[in-house]
TrEMBL record:
One of its GO terms (molecular function) is TBP-class protein binding. Residues 1-17 have a biased composition (Basic and acidic residues). InterPro entries: Cyclin-like_dom, Cyclin-like_sf, TFIIB, TFIIB_cyclin. It comes from the Archaea. The gene is sua79. Residues 29-43, 51-67 have a biased composition (Basic residues). This is Transcription initiation factor TFIIB, Brf1 subunit/Transcription initiation factor TFIIB. Residues 80-161, 174-257 form the Cyclin-like domain. Residues 1-73 are annotated as: Disordered.
Amino acid sequence: MLEASPPDRRTRSRDGGRGTGAPVSPTRPNRRLSSRVGRRRDARGRPVAERRRRRLHRQRTQHRRAARAANKETLQPGLSEIARVCAVLDVSGSVRASASVLFRRALAEHLLYGRAYESIAGATVYLGARQVDVVRTLTEVANASRCPNTTVVRDVRFLQRELKIAVGPLSAAVYLPRLRSALGLDERAVRSARRLLEAAIAENLHSGRDPKGVAAGALYTVSRLDERTVDLRQTEVATAADVSPETVRARFDEFASCCPEVLDDGNAASP
């Protein structure tokens, strides 16, 4: 006996207003559209005879084999790996949904041949996070996916090329909240860093530079030039931003020489 959940009356079809069940989800292997073969009771809760149980057992076996096609044998563990990586990274459900869609596309295009599904799952999580403007570095994703960083980077570029995924660079301002939390700064320092970034963009100092390094350099400059902000070391700022101390120092030299009036104006305006 096939058991199916009752339709969700809150979800209506466009034509007749009838209940059409729960919405589908790309994060589930069957998109929440699967059926389940019962065991000892039918859909009404009545006991099933012994002879019919054997037939249901055979039906369950065939149903399980049909559901596990060649590509779906990778789909199930791949989506589970995406869910695990997203849980480790503590990202929103939109990231998981975007990553699941990308993984399905890669599977449909037969792009997983010769590649581990763990690294492909990690690459889709990184690309899914970029699509919804969630900041997660490749190092963080690689550590969460338990794959080498070089492997995840390779698969990210591979998926971008084969699936024609256009992902623009993140702005430096997106990294400020994370760096503020990691460095223990207050909101005033972030506001000063935002003003500094706006002035740096106006001077085209961000062109061709890593947004993480630009954000780290802005916060480091604020900590050095603003007397009310705790003085930070280059190494701790570089570690928090996952860049080299030389990058932080180079951005500091540019910001300190070109944008000192920004911090002066901010200090004068503050009570």
